[in-house]
Amino acid sequence: MEIKVKRIQFTDESTIGEMFINGKFQCYTLEDKDRGLMDSMSLAEIKVRKIFGVTCIPYGKYRVVLSMSPKFGKVLPEIQGVKGYSGIRIHTGNTAKDSLGCLLVGKKRAYNQIFESTAAMRELMLLLDKANNVEIEFVK
């Protein structure tokens, strides 16, 4: 399964995107502020530019697995192999304050917000439960 997150709205507070699964629109996304990080950068360069808890995931392609989240106490999608990051999840939330570096999903969007996150997450989990070899790519 191929997931693509196309980032479309950038503010000093958040980054809004559109999630596509195998080329079909799935939902909106919300992340922390885009600081121009790319997976092709060295770990040292990422560490210099990243601000913990308020920086979105670097542009690039990563593996996604379903695993138990210690923080949420349930199985959630985990984005693996992100330089300088750990425990990155896809989960519910409405604003950058809910993110802490993770990817939030929602059915509707507004300025610095997404809505109907629980419904979007439920639909995404149904698709991921049936999938193998899941990759996610973050693009502009």
What is this structure's SSE topology?
Layout: E1 2-10, E2 15-21, E3 24-31, H1 43-49, E4 60-69, E5 74-80, E6 90-91, E7 103-106, E8 108-110, E9 113-115, H2 117-129, E10 134-139
Parallel strand pairs: 1-10, 6-7
Antiparallel strand pairs: 1-2, 2-3, 3-7, 4-5, 4-10, 8-9
Strand content: 35-45%
The radius of gyration over CA amounts to: 14 Å
Which geometry do the CA atoms define? Answer: globular
Largest sheet: 8 strands, mixed
Tally of strands:
10
Distance between the termini: 20 Å
So how many helices? 2
Number of domains: 1
- SSE run: EEEHEEEEEEHE
Strand order of the largest sheet: 5-4-10-1-2-3-7-6
Overall pLDDT, averaged?
97
Low-confidence region ranges: none
Helix content: 10-25%
Question: Can you offer a commentary on this structure?
Answer:
- The protein is mostly beta strands and about 140 residues long.
- The protein has one domain.
- It is built from two helices and ten strands.
- Strands 5-4-10-1-2-3-7-6 form an eight-stranded mixed beta sheet, with helices on one face. A two-stranded antiparallel sheet has the order 8-9.
- Strand 8 (about 110) and strand 9 (about 115) form a beta hairpin.
- The two termini are about 20 Å apart.
